[in-house]
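Quick one - first record:
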Amino acid sequence: MTGPVYDAGALIGAESNDREVWKLHKAALARGVTPVVPATVLAQVVRGATTNANLRRLLKGCRVEPLDEADAEAVGVLLAAAGTSDIIDAHAVVRVLATGAAVLSGDRPDLERLAAGVNRTIHIIDV
C-alpha cells in the first residue's frame, strides 16, 4: 500500500532528527504503508558522504520512485499549467496526484500552486 509522498522538507527533517517527521514516518510504517520518495527529491537532498545516517535509515522504509517517461511528461504538463519551473516540486505533486496520498513538505505555497494549475487540491502535511 502506498503511503505519503516525502518532499525535501521531510527528508531534511529526518536527517536533522525532527521528531514530528519521525513520528509520521513510524505511523505510516505501523499502518503497513510504504512512503514514497520521488528520485528527484532525493537528488535535491543527498550530498554524498556527508549525508546523515538518519536519512539513510528513513530511506530503508521508503520506495524511491524514478522519474520515468510517463512522470517526466506529467511533470512537464504540470509545470506548463502552473507557469513554474521547479521539476522537483512538480515530481512530488505528480506522485501525490497519481496516488491520492498526502505529501510531507515544507513548501506548501509552491505545491499548492502546482496542483491548482491543473485544478486539483492536494493534502499537504507541513513539516
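second record:
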Amino acid sequence: MKILFTGGGTGGHFYPIIAIAEALLDIADKTKLVDMNLYYAAPTPYDATTLFKHNITYKMVPGGKLRKYASFSNITDTIKTAIGIIKAFIDLFFLYPDVVVGKGGYGSFPVLLAARFFRIPIIIHESDSIPGKVNRWAGKFASRIAISYPEAAKYFPKEKVALTGNPIRKEILESAPEGAKKYLDLEDEVPVILVLGGSQGAQNINNVIVDALPELVEKYQILHQTGDSHIKDILNRSGIILEKKTKKGRYHPFNYFNDSALRIAAGATDLIISRAGSTIFEIAAWGIPSIIIPLSETVAHDQKENAFTYARSGAAHVVEDENLTQNVLLNEIEKLLTDIKKLEVMGKAAKRFSRPDAAEIIAKEVIRIAKYH
C-alpha cells in the first residue's frame, strides 16, 4: 500500500501530515497490514529528521505561490510551479500511489493536479475555518474532505465532508505536568503564562510582552517562545528592562520548544497566549485557557475566523492584533488569572473542542479508500 502526502511547506501543513502518518503506521501494526509505504512530496522536506524517523520517503516537487499583488516573484514562482507539475506527473506515473493525502498550500498543487489526471483517489484536510485556494479547488474532485472547523463545510460538497478536527502528533497530544515546574525552575505558587508565537516567533506579540515585563514579573512567571530570529534581540531588551527588578528570574525566554519541552511547558502553564494557527488544537487538547491573537486579515485571511470560532466555544478570549497593546494584554491576563472559576470553565470548554482522535479517523478512511482502489 502506497500513501503519498503533499502540503504547502509550513508547520501547519507538515505536522498534521506526520500525525496522520503515525496513525497509519499504528493501524498497520495492529492489523498486521504489511507493506505500508509512505511518501511526502513538497518543495522542501521541512523537517527531514522527522520524515526519516517515521520512515517517510521525500519526493522534491517544486511549487510557487500565486500572489494577488504585482511582484517579480510571481514570474519565478509560475516557472517553479510549471516545473513542479512536470515533476509531479513523472513521480506519480512511476510511483502510482493508492491514495494522495493533501494538506493544502501552494506546494500541494502540482501533486494534486497530477493525481487528478491519473485518477488516483484524493483525500484533503483543511485546518482553517476559511479554506485556502488549493483546497477549495481540490475539494471539487477529492474523494473525501476532512475539516477542522464546522464553518469550513460550506466551501465543499457536503456529501464528501467530515468534521474530524486537526490531527495532532502523539508526542504533544498530552501535556506533561508531573514535575514540570521543578524541571523548568519555576515557583510553585505563582501563575505561569506560556507565550507561543510559532517556530518563527510573532514580532508584535514579542514586543508587547517585553514592554509589559516589569508588570508581568510582579505577579506571574512567563515562558516565552520568541522564535529563532528574535531571541538575541529579546534577550538584550529584556535584560535591560528587567535589570533592576528583583523578580526578573520569573521571565524565561526560549528561542523554540521541541516536542518534549513543549509538553513540559504546557504541563506547568495556567494560561497560554498564542496566534490562531493549528496551535489552537494543541491548546485545546491540553485543556488550557488561552488568549488568542490572530494575525490581521491583510496577512492571513483565516486566523481571525479561526480565533473567533474557537472563542465561541468558551475556551479562549480574542485580542485582535491591531488592538494589541501593553495595557490591553495586561488587563486580559489579570481578568482571567484572578477568576479561578472562569479558568476552570474555559479549560473544560477547550477539552470539549478538542478532537484527539482526528488523525486516527483520517487514517482509517485513507486505508479504506486505498484498499478499494
